Amino acid sequence: MLLKLDIGDTRPLHEQVAGAIRRAVAEGECAPGDKLPPARELSLALGVNTNTVLRGLRTLRDEGVLEFRRGRGITIATGADIRSELVDRVRALIEDAARAGYSRNDLVDMIRGVS
After folding, report:
1. φ, ψ for residue 32 (rounded to 5)?
2. What phi and psi values does residue 52 have, to the nearest 5 degrees?
3. What is the spatial distance between Cα 102 and Cα 85, in angstroms, rounded to a whole number?
4. C-alpha angle with apex 54: 9 to 73, nearest 5 degrees?
5. Which residues, in sequence order, are CB contacts of 45 under 8 Å at separation 6+?
6. In the chain, which ranges are E strands?
7. Cα 101 to Cα 9: distance, rounded to the nearest angstrom
8. pTM, whole model, 2 decimals?
9. What is the rounded CA–CA span in Å between residue 36 and residue 39?
10. How far apart are alpha carbons 110 and 64 in whole angstroms?
C-alpha cells in the first residue's frame, strides 16, 4: 500500500492519514481482511509522528473501516470498501453544503425530508 500526504492540504495530519487509507480501500488497493503495516512503519513512510498515525487509525476503527485485533494487528474490515467510499461522499456533501451556506443541522433536516 502506497500512501502519500499532500503537503498543501490544510486538514490536520491525522485526518489526512485516515483519508489516504480510506482512499486506498475505496480504490481497491486494500481489500477486506488485508493487514495494515504497523503504525510505526506507516509513520516512517509518511514522515509523521506515530501518535498522528494512531489517531487516524482510531478514527477509521470508529468508522468501521478498520478492525484492531490484539496480537494480529490492524486489518481492513468487511464491507470497508463501501463504507469508506460513503464516508468520503458524506464529507464532500458536508463541505458542499457549507459552501452553499447550510449548516450540518440543515443538511440532516434535508436528508430526513427525503423519502
Report:
1. -50, 135
2. -65, -45
3. 23
4. 130
5. 3, 37
6. 66-69, 73-76
7. 22
8. 0.71
9. 8
10. 25
3-state helix, strand, coil in the chain (%, to 5): 55, 10, 35
Query: Which residues make beta-bridge pairs with 76?
Result: 66
Residue 2 has pLDDT above 70, yes or no: no
If we measure between CA atoms, which residue out of 22, 12, 11 comes closest to residue 3?
Answer: 22
Q: How far apart are CA 107 and CA 96, in angstroms?
A: 10
Q: Side chain identity at 18, as an amino acid letter? A: A
Q: Quick one: which H or E segment has residue 58? A: helix 50-63
Q: Any idea what the Cα angle at residue 61 is, between residues 59 and 67, rounded to 5°?
A: 155
Q: How does pLDDT run across 86-97, given as a tens digit for each residue? A: 877 888 899 999
The label of the residue with cell 486506498 reads 24
